[in-house]
């Protein structure tokens, strides 16, 4: 097993007044040649957006984009005819940019701050048709058990959120002293574990809120919660 720890205070940061961003990987004006990506995972931004503000219309292409609100909500519109769709805490959005899409996002509330993860995953092939999906997830269904949020389009069923990469995004809320063994889909995959909140132990390492760890060259690993902990797993191919 290979591992690498990414501490929360070592992330890139930007403060645009309306947006406070934390970059796990090189993005915008933050450049770190040792943190350009983790396999097919290209971006994991931890964004805090002021009420009534947001991202103006901008383009994307050939990227799988996943948005996970953690507190508050956003509204989304795009060139696929979606007009200011609300995306609230408890929901997940996927957008396959493919051949090209324009979209804009704004904080749904005019006063309260929005916090969300924005995740970009490099697709297995370019030039696919743009697509959009959104789904609500019950937090009760991830208490001490894995809740899969996003699957590969090859594995997904009709009601699932899917992307064009052999990847899987999932969450678990572990009670203190509980353990969970994560099984990887493939030994050619790696997992980027982001600790949303709490405190966990993995091997001999202790992770605290917003710390992350990359794990690869393994078929499984075990996480132990020291306190109540919310964990996000992003499993991606390491060779693609």
Descriptive report:
Residues 13-121 form the Pirin N-terminal domain. This is Pirin family protein. It comes from Lutimonas vermicola. This protein has 240 residues and is mainly beta. The chain has one domain: Jelly Rolls, CATH 2.60.120. The chain contains no helices and 22 strands. It has a seven-stranded mixed beta sheet, with no helix packed on it. A seven-stranded antiparallel beta sheet has the order 2-3-4-11-6-9-12, with no helix packed on it. β2 and β3 form a beta hairpin. It is globular and about 45 Å long. The two termini are 19 Å apart. The relative contact order is 0.19. The model has no long low-confidence stretch (mean pLDDT 96).
End-to-end span in angstroms?
Answer: 19 Å
**In the residues, how many domains can be counted?**
1
Helix-strand pattern, N to C? EEEEEEEEEEEEEEEEEEEEEE
Q: Quick one: biggest sheet? A: 7 strands, mixed
Helix content: under 10%
The CATH topology: Jelly Rolls
The assigned CATH architecture is Sandwich
Radius of gyration: 17 Å
- Give the strand order of the largest sheet, numbering strands 1, 2, ... along the chain: 1-20-17-22-15-13-14
Please identify the structural class as seen in this structure: mainly beta
- Count of separate DSSP helical elements: 0
Query: Going by CATH, what is the homologous superfamily?
Result: Jelly Rolls
Look at the structure and give the CATH class. Mainly Beta
Total beta strands: 22
Mean pLDDT: 96
Spans of at least 5 consecutive residues with low confidence: none
Strand content: over 45%
Domain Quercetin 2,3-dioxygenase C-terminal cupin: 154-236
Organism: Lutimonas vermicola
InterPro entries: Pirin (IPR012093), Pirin_N_dom (IPR003829), Quercetinase_C (IPR041602), RmlC-like_jellyroll (IPR014710), RmlC_Cupin_sf (IPR011051)
Family: Belongs to the pirin family.
């Amino acid at each position: 097993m290979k591992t690498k720890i990414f501490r929360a205070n070592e992330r890139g940061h930007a403060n645009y007044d309306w947006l406070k961003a934390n970059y796990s990987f090189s993005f915008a004006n933050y450049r770190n040649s040792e943190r350009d990506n983790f396999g097919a995972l290209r971006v994991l931004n931890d964004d805090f957006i002021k009420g009534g503000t947001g991202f103006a219309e901008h383009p994307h292409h050939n990227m799988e984009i996943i948005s996970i609100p953690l507190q508050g909500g956003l509204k989304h519109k795009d060139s696929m005819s979606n007009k200011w769709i609300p995306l609230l805490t408890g929901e997940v959005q996927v957008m396959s940019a493919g051949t090209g899409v324009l979209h804009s996002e704004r904080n749904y509330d005019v006063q309260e701050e929005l916090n969300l993860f924005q995740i970009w995953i490099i697709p297995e092939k370019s030039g696919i048709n743009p697509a959009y999906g959104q789904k609500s997830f019950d937090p009760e269904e991830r208490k001490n058990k894995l809740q899969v949020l996003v699957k590969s389009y090859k594995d997904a069923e009709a009601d699932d959120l899917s992307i064009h990469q052999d990847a899987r995004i999932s969450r678990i809320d572990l009670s203190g002293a509980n353990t969970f063994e994560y099984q990887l889909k493939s030994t050619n995959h790696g997992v980027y574990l982001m600790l949303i909140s709490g405190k966990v132990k993995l091997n001999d390492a202790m992770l605290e809120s917003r710390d992350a760890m990359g794990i690869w060259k393994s078929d499984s690993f075990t996480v132990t919660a020291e306190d109540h902990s919310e964990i996000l797993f992003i499993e991606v191919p390491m060779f693609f």
